[in-house]
Amino acid sequence: MATPKPQRSPEEVEDIILRKIFLVSLTETAAESDSRVVYLELTAAEILSEGKELRLSRDLMERVLIDRLSGNFASAEPPFQYLIGCYRRACDEGKKIASIKDNNLRSEMESAARQAKKLSVSYCRIHLANPELFSAANSSPNRPNGSPLLPLIFSKVGSSLDGFGGVVGGSGGVESPPGFLEEFFRDSDFDSLDPILRGLYEDLRLGVLKVSALGNFQQHLRALHFLVSLPVGAKSLVNHPWWIPKGVYLTGRAIEVTSVLGPFFHVSALPDHTIYKSQPDVGQQCFSDASTRRPADLLSSFTTIKTVMNNLYDGLSEVLLLLLKNQDTRQGVLEFFAEVINKNSSRAHIQVDPMSCASSGMFVNLSAVMLRLCEPFLDANLTKRDKIDPKYVFYGDRLDLGGLTALHASSEEVAEWTNKRQSDGENRLLQSQEATSSGINTFGPPITKSSSSGEKTKYTFICECFFMTARVLNLGLLKAFSDFKHLVQDISRREDALTTLKDMQGQTPSPQLQLEITRLEKEIELFSQEKLCYEAQILRDGTIIQCALSFYRLMVVWLVGMVGGFKMPLPSTCPTEFACMPEHFVEDAMELLIFASRIPKALDGVLLDDFMNFIIMFMASPNYIRNPYLRAKMVEVLNCWMPRRSGSSATASLFEGHQLSLEYLVRNLLKLYVDIEFTGSHTQFYDKFNIRHNIAELLEYLWQVPSHRNAWRRIAKEEEKGVYLNFLNFLINDSIYLLDESLNKILELKELEAEMANTAEWERRPAQERQERTRLFHSQENIIRIDMKLANEDVSMLAFTSEQITAPFLLPEMVERVASMLNYFLLQLVGPQSKSLSLKDPEKYEFRPKQLLKQIVCIYVHLARGDSENIFPSAISKDGRSYNEQLFTDAADVLRRIGENGKVIQEFDELSAKAKVAASEARDAEATLGEIPDEFLDPIQYTLMRDPVILPSSRITIDRAVIQRHLLSDSTDPFNRSHLTADMLIPDTELKERIEEFIRSQEMKRREGLSTQSIKATIQTTDGQMLID
Asked: What single DSSP character describes residue 233?
């Protein structure tokens, strides 16, 4: 029978377990059996001297551990790895202990294992916080690879995928023992963990510095999320010295590079300055030689970048949400946002200094993250918009909003209102305190003191998040849209230049030209890569655009709430809060709508009615939105929404079934057409043509909608001498200028063509001169194309509106101007100069002379039909510069040749005959009047005044029709430039009576003369002899 195994005592079991956990021995024999085991000779001697057994116990555990860490043992593990091993072995021993059947022994041993784990964790903290403490034990206090804790965190948060879906390791094969990290960060005070966490955050920051969207950032982002999910980690982060870097010369770029979160926000697919360029290079790796790549490859790259960037947005949003939900860290997050925004305010400039401003990538990422933070208050009904306080613009102390251009108020007015409100608030607070101390509360609830009186005004998170998001989008997403647009324009310009250079190289090759061609090709390739990077991260990400549209819907609804809601007409006085709102709030909304409208399906599912209401309400309201260019941008939005352009039937309802649209759209478009004449800009003369082009296209579409056409006719009747007359005047002005400019440029272009066609003479010219003349030729082509397109639009509008609206054209102050314009156009198209306007390819320049002639003749005919008082033929014949009866005959002949409607030609011939009669009558009348006294002549036109009026400022007398025609374009006295309006004119009744008497007397003399001649003719015989001798 076998001898039973002797039972070990609890002390012996504990000794065995602790020796296995800590890999130490108090006897040399035990150490020899395992090379990992360290013999603690000095410790053993001390224990023996104390009269104790050489056996490990819980009482000796910490002493043994300190001696092991402090000693310099050959081939021993570094302290951190050793302590992690202790924790892992304690876990393993714990599993074995669970199988001990003796409950008391099992409980004792479990306690020992727990204490061992706790001790291991505690000394890990001590070592990481004070690495020099155990530096003698085969370790260096300087750790070039960062905190040894980081690989454990990486292993806990899982492996990462790079931009192409490959697994990226980062923990170096090191795995965190179960429960170690939780215990490490749980049972300790903030002061002992803070230095460790600071080092970890610095390591994470460095780990993603200069990492692009295709690099390994996700592992570091998950590690950041893990740390922030710990209360101590969140507190340590916002108290980190690099949470918001400090310094007199701190810039936006410095925050991006040196702050803890900055490098995470820098991860992007967008291009950046060479110094800060991230790797791998997204443009080079995904989009080089894009024109030769398969569409499937490009689509794969687009999908990869979109997916990776959304992972980044989600990860950063989760990190920030954890910090914002924590009351102790929320203010720190808002201060970080504010500092980033304020230090990068110059990103709003057209030219951005990349050395002082953060990258576009950072701000686009920040835009996406801020929009995610706004989602809770972007519900369909916008139920939380009341929590957004407009007074934040006056009293909010985080954001620098004071220097921003306001919707209507000047900077001086904003400052004055701010100071007045603060003063009123302090006075009310003082009175409230006095009333409260006397037992009377006159003013209701206590008033929060403003920041000027020493206390910060508190605003809800929704309010602060709203204003910060608006600023971030302005500096980020909307700025990126602008950069993308300019990039596309740069590519287009370079491609045009490249085409020109290649043509020149084909004619006269030269090495210098070839160098220039090569340089342009490289630039186009680089810019094309950058363009595709923008497309991948922004244009193809429908989520970010949809979220931005939801945010700006809240913006416009909130703004309209300040003026009483969606109703017209607007209050006569603009509310102070609305007037002081930053102009870019509205401008960004319009830019986003324009940009989104040009991306297929970007507007699908978006509620556009609120935007439509806002545009109709404010586009013709300079008392609310001062900037005419901003109001013109609203028309550009509507232009994008026209059904034929948007490609969506959904937008048709915005025009054809929308109450405010049906009632006010045409009226406000006509008003804006007039207002845009004077923008105050030094480029206003040229700007107005582009703006009116958009208005004209929209008006042409609305004319085809019966309900809008009826509204148009009603406005023309109601505003016959108001806004409609002004609109007509500027339409005529533009038509004359644009057609005249186009036709003159055609003559210049033909001269250049003749020069270049003379090959022998052309080749003798210097190469530089040929290049300059070639560039001028292409420039002239573009100018003609643009001007002629605009002229066609204007003439077309005159044609289709005059068919049903003729009265304003035939007003005394307008009829002669209209007639002169039509005569001038007729002269250009069928007069002696017309043959010199022939072009090889007129359609290329939008020059359609046959169509133009048809439209001009139709305008003649339309006005003749509406001319019940027969004043139009007289106005035609009075035009001494262009009228010629032969022109009407020639025009009719051309119309017959090109197949115009016979009825139109017949009516045109009849009008021509009437004009001929009117011309004859005018000559007779001129002969009758004879020499007219100077005092009866208009000082500008030198024609006989019919209704003289006195100008109140200069006291000069002028004909009413002449001055009213002048006032349509310029509301000043033409003789001294003082302000003048039609209602200020003073009728000169005495002079009018004298003129009328003069006319009567001259006509009487003429009749008397005719009567005498008639008598003489009657009494004269046929043979010439007098009947009376």
From this structure: H
Q: Mean pLDDT over residues 314-318, rounded?
A: 97
Residue 24 phi/psi, 5-degree rounding, is: -130, 160
Note whether 322 and 404 are same-domain residues.
no
Two tokens, residue 947:
């209704």
The DSSP code for 161 is E
CA 661 to chain centroid: 25
Is residue 953 assigned to a domain? Answer: yes
Q: Enter the pTM of the model.
A: 0.85
How many whole angstroms separate alpha carbon 444 and alpha carbon 678? 49
Domain boundary among 894, 928, 962: 928
Q: What is the CA radius of gyration of the chain?
A: 43
- Dihedral over Cα of 417, 423, 427, 430: its sign: positive
> Is 349 within the bounds of a domain?
yes
Residues 867 and 1007 in one domain: no
User: Lowest-pLDDT range, 266-275, 304-313, 401-410, 930-939?
Assistant: 930-939
Query: End-to-end distance of the chain based on CA atoms, in angstroms?
Result: 192
What's the distance, CA 903 to chain centroid? 52
Average the pLDDT over 196-206 and give the result: 94
CA-to-CA separations, 114 to 94, 110, 929, in angstroms, rounded? 8, 6, 124
CB 452 within 8 A of CB 421: no
Dist CA 852 CA 829 (whole Å) = 8
Cα separation, 62 vs 517, in Å, equals 77
Whether residues 358 and 226 fall in one domain: yes
Q: Are residues 815 and 952 in the same domain?
A: no
d(CA 860, CA 854): 10
In DSSP notation, 601-650 reads TTTTT---HHHHHHHHHHTT-TTT---HHHHHHHHHHHHHHSHHHH--GG
Residues 940, 969, single domain; the answer is yes
If you average pLDDT over every residue of the chain, what do you get?
A: 86
Determine phi and psi for 613, rounding to 5 degrees: -60, -45
Question: Using an 8 Å Cβ cutoff, are 218 and 266 in contact?
Answer: no
Compute the distance between CA of residue 104 and CA of residue 193 in angstroms, rounded to an integer.
36
DSSP assignment letter at 2? P
Domain residues for 645? 390-424+541-701
How far lies 284's CA from each of 399, 682, 858, in Å?
38, 42, 59
| Helix H or strand E segment including 950 | strand 948-950
Which of 928, 957, 990 is the endpoint of a domain? 928
Domain count, the chain: 5
Q: What b/e string do you get for 81-111 counting C-beta neighbours within 10 Å, with b at 16 or more?
A: ebbbbbbbbbbebbeebeeeeeeebeebbee
From the list 239, 217, 181, the residue with the least C-alpha distance to 314 is: 217
Burial class (CB in 10 A: 0-12, 13-18, 19+), 964: buried
Same domain, residue pair 827 and 886: yes
Q: Specify the amino acid at residue 528.
A: S
Domain assignment present for residue 178? The answer is: no
Query: pLDDT (tens digit, 9 = 90+) per residue, 735-777?
Result: 989 988 888 888 888 888 888 888 888 888 887 888 788 888 8
> What tokens does 643 get?
């059904």
Rounded distance between C-alpha atoms, residue 449 and residue 431, angstroms = 13
pLDDT in tens, 27-81: 877 656 677 888 888 888 888 888 888 888 888 898 989 888 888 887 778 889 9
- Please check whether residues 229 and 330 belong to one and the same domain: yes
Strands 957-959 and 948-950: antiparallel
pLDDT in the model for residue 446: 36
184 lies in some domain: no
* Same domain as 632, residue 745: no
